Amino acid sequence: MKTMNLIYPLALALAVTLAGTGCKHQPVKMTKLPASPDAQPYVGEPSNSPTLPPSQPFQPEQQPMVNPVNPPVGIPTAPPELFEGMIQDRAPLANNTVHFAFDSAVVKTSEKANLDAVAACLAGDATLKLLIEGHCDERGTEEYNRSLGERRALALREALAKKKLDPQRIRTESFGKDKPVDPGHDDAAWAKNRRGEFVVLRPNPNAPKP
Question: Does the pTM of the predicted model rise above 0.85?
């Protein structure tokens, strides 16, 4: 009986101890899932990705353009020998220079008065011929601007042909960006340099008679 009396309190104490510590179990360790690729910070393209070339400087006059209003085609080029030995005279048409929009060879309607003056000058003297010089601003490559200057000169030649001026009396030449009238490097200077100039060609009185 004494043995039972000793066992009972011990059993009761053990039960109380277990009850007090039963809530303090260790948390179950969770296995971490691998992070989503989208959650990783961007560190650049993989090393096996093709390397993109560095950005090239913007060349505003390097894209071919189509002239929808005055396409400078369809008029035969005048033979160079028709202009041999003639004397250049810039004075008569110095104030009738035509200007163009950026990267354009379209003759603007606002230039009608200048074209009328050029046509009237040549209509008054059948011995005169005309040189049209095409010019561009400094932007773009030399090759592209040379082509654009020629298209501008040809567009002016066609516009004068529509005014009944014989295109065989007109020759064209492009100087691209080589001869700016304004050496500046801003919009105002570029607007002046995008132009077509007219040069009167007079017979050389000292040339030998054919």
Answer: no
Sign of CA dihedral 97, 103, 106, 110: negative
Give dist(CA 28, CA 12) in Å, integer.
Answer: 30
CA distance 174 to 196: 9
Give average pLDDT by consecutive 10-residue segment, the chain, 210 residues.
54 55 49 45 36 39 37 64 89 97 96 97 94 96 96 96 94 96 96 98 81
Domain parsing of the chain, residue ranges: 89-202
Token pair for 162: 């529509």
* CA-based nearest residue to 75, from 137, 132, 120, 143: 132
Q: How far apart are CA 169 and CA 199, in angstroms?
A: 12
CB 154, CB 172: distance < 8 Å: yes
Q: Token pair for residue 152?
A: 């501008």
- Given the DSSP bridges, would you call strands 98-99 and 170-176 parallel, antiparallel or unpaired? unpaired
Q: Which amino acid is at 5?
A: N
Residue 147, number of CB atoms within 10 A of its CB: 19
CATH class label, 89-202: alpha beta
Residue 92 phi/psi, 5-degree rounding, is -60, -35
